[in-house]
Design a protein that fits this description.
Rossmann fold; single chain; binds nicotinamide-adenine-dinucleotide; 266 residues; alpha/beta
Length: 266
């Protein structure tokens, strides 16, 4: 039997990168999935791809910074597929810069998408899950939810907030059958990485080398963790912020020893 047979999920930011990989994994494992995003063409194309493979999905245009649009996405899950079991709050957009230089509008929009958007996603998912008596919320944070990152204060602030919001949902609704967890990826090969590379501060090779695995991660590797947290296989896990970072945060590298390339260690 498929791991999410009969379940219904909403994935925000589901048209691209980690979200799109997660949509595919959840659908492959039997879930009906509502793809919620701003990128209509990419979202519709993903739904068409899944339909061709005999999998169930629907697309809804959704700006997660607007509560009413998340309400519509969850209403779509309920009307088209019969309810909601899994909410993956994953959409992100952020500006950056030195703290003193950040335009307050850019700060507000970043927090509106990445923190308000996750709050709204939880707020609309919880009543639908209470109706079922069960549910799993998976919020996308980041290694940047634990640490500072140059020129990224709106991002790091929002991602840290996502972790504690997730913990609050876990302790407030655990007894009602709802679990909530955060996934904290390292650097993943998505259009977001292209934006980082365009900034020109680090090469792809330098970024890869920061991970213990010596490579950037694939969206599907993060999607596999989301799938696990969405499924009943993770029934004992709630309130957790789980790293899927390829060892990015395993060491400080302060000593500057080179990585071992080749030889018996390579
Ligand atoms: N790529 C990485 O290295 C990395 C690392 C850690 C965490 N993350 C997190 O993973 C998540 C997915 O990022 P990704 O790397 O797949 O990037 P991505 O750019 O491929 O996907 C982000 C998606 O969010 C959508 N989006 C943006 N603003 C939105 C809004 N207001 N409403 C609805 N959708 C919106 C975009 O259209 C896009 O489809 C994000 O939360 C990101 O912060 C990514």
């Amino acid at each position: 039997m498929a791991r999410l047979e009969g379940k219904v999920a909403v994935v925000t930011g589901g048209a691209s990168g980690i979200g799109a990989a997660t949509v595919r994994r959840l659908a492959e494992e039997g879930a009906a999935v509502v793809v919620a995003d701003l990128q209509d063409e990419k979202g519709e194309a993903l739904v068409a791809e899944l339909a061709k493979a005999g999998l169930r999905a629907a697309y809804r245009h959704c700006d997660v910074a607007e509560l009413s649009q998340l309400e519509e996405a969850v209403a779509c899950a309920c009307s088209e597929f019969g309810g909601l079991d899994v909410m993956h709050n994953n959409a992100a957009w952020s500006g950056g810069g030195y703290v003193a230089d950040i335009d307050p509008e850019v700060w507000r929009r970043s927090l509106a998408v990445m923190l308000d958007g996750v709050f709204y996603g939880c707020k609309v998912a919880i009543p639908a899950m209470l109706e079922r008596g069960a549910g799993s919320i998976v919020n996308t944070s980041s290694v940047d939810g634990f640490y500072g990152e140059m020129l990224s204060s709106p991002y790091t602030t929002a991602k840290a907030g996502v972790i504690n919001l997730t913990r609050n949902v876990a302790i407030e609704y655990g007894r009602k059958g709802i679990r909530a967890n955060a996934v904290c990826p390292g650097v993943v090969d998505t259009p977001l990485l292209d934006v980082v590379l365009q900034a020109g501060t680090r090469t792809r090779e330098q970024i890869a080398d920061m991970h213990a695995l010596g490579r950037v991660l694939e969206p599907r590797e993060i999607a596999n963790l989301v799938l696990f947290l969405a499924s009943d296989e993770s029934s004992a896990i709630t309130g957790a912020a789980i790293l899927a970072d390829g060892g990015l945060t395993a060491g400080t590298r302060l000593t500057g020893f080179p990585t071992f390339g080749g030889g018996s260690y390579g």
